[in-house]
């Protein structure tokens, strides 16, 4: 169904339920996640689970300022919740396709914070992998139905791109922290080599996303920016503090540049000459 056809189709009861539940659920999920992360003065995530996810827990832990990106992501998710609830968006095919999935990502994020606060690190790995999987499904669904409204593009493409890019890097850091906490550590490779492999994987994710989603730069470029942001703060963290590592710092810097530049280059390559 095209956007013009959807505009002339009366909303169904299911449409209205989806709009209401996604709006209310999103507000609750974002509030719970923010409070659980320490916004209300409680224990921040970096101090939970014995500090396993702190900025100096592993060589691929981003510096503390990196997590400020959540403010932007939360703002975008709240914008999405409001936009999808507007009367004229009830039958929008794109919002129909992703509404429940976006809500699912927010609920999983809140669950992840709760699991970490409880100290269940392996549980947190399972949840963040599920979150990443749901974000990937949402990414594919967004690609299939382009937006025709600038506001919707910001609320969906930009928000979900930043969300996916950041969670990709956060997943690598979460896995590394969990392995380290269980004394599995670097899988016999050594901290520097293990860290370099992980940050390279983070950059490759951004490259893969850029190529796969090359038809929609409004989605892939934010993915690269968020991944690059996280990787850059890994580089910064490895040049200062108690856990410095020159090899990882250099590798993370190169990975950050590649993550940001790849979607831009792929977009420019697609332009007609």
TrEMBL record:
Key words of the record: Membrane, Transmembrane, Transmembrane helix
Membrane-traversing stretches = 20-39, 67-86, 98-115, 121-140, 160-181, 193-212, 219-236, 248-269
* InterPro entries found in the cross-reference section: TspO/MBR-related_sf
Q: Does the keyword Transmembrane apply?
A: yes
Protein name according to UniProt: TspO/MBR related protein
Q: Which organism is it from?
A: Isoptericola halotolerans
Taxonomic lineage is:
Bacteria, Bacillati, Actinomycetota, Actinomycetes, Micrococcales
């Amino acid at each position: 169904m095209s956007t013009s056809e959807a505009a002339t189709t009366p909303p169904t009861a299911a449409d209205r339920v989806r709009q209401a539940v996604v709006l209310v659920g999103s507000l609750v999920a974002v509030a719970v996640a923010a409070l659980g992360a320490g916004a209300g003065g409680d224990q921040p995530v970096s101090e939970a689970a014995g500090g396993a996810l702190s900025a100096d827990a592993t060589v691929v832990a981003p510096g503390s300022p990196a997590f400020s990106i959540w403010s932007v992501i939360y703002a975008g998710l709240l914008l999405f919740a409001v936009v999808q609830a507007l009367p004229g968006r009830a039958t929008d095919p794109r919002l129909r396709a992703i509404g429940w999935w976006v809500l699912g990502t927010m609920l999983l994020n809140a669950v992840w914070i709760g699991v970490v606060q409880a100290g269940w690190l392996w549980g947190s790995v399972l949840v963040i992998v599920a979150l990443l999987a749901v974000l990937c499904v949402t990414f594919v669904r967004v690609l299939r139905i382009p937006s025709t409204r600038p506001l919707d593009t910001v609320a969906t493409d930009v928000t979900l791109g930043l969300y996916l890019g950041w969670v990709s890097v956060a997943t690598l850091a979460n896995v590394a922290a969990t392995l380290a906490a269980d004394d599995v550590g670097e899988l016999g490779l050594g901290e520097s080599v293990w860290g370099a492999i992980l940050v390279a994987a983070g950059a490759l994710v951004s490259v893969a996303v850029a190529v796969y989603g090359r038809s929609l730069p409004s989605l892939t470029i934010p993915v690269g920016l968020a991944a690059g942001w996280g990787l850059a703060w890994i580089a910064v963290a490895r040049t200062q503090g108690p856990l410095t590592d020159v090899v990882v710092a250099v590798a993370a810097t190169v990975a950050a540049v590649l993550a940001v530049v790849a979607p831009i280059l792929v977009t420019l390559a697609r332009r007609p000459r």
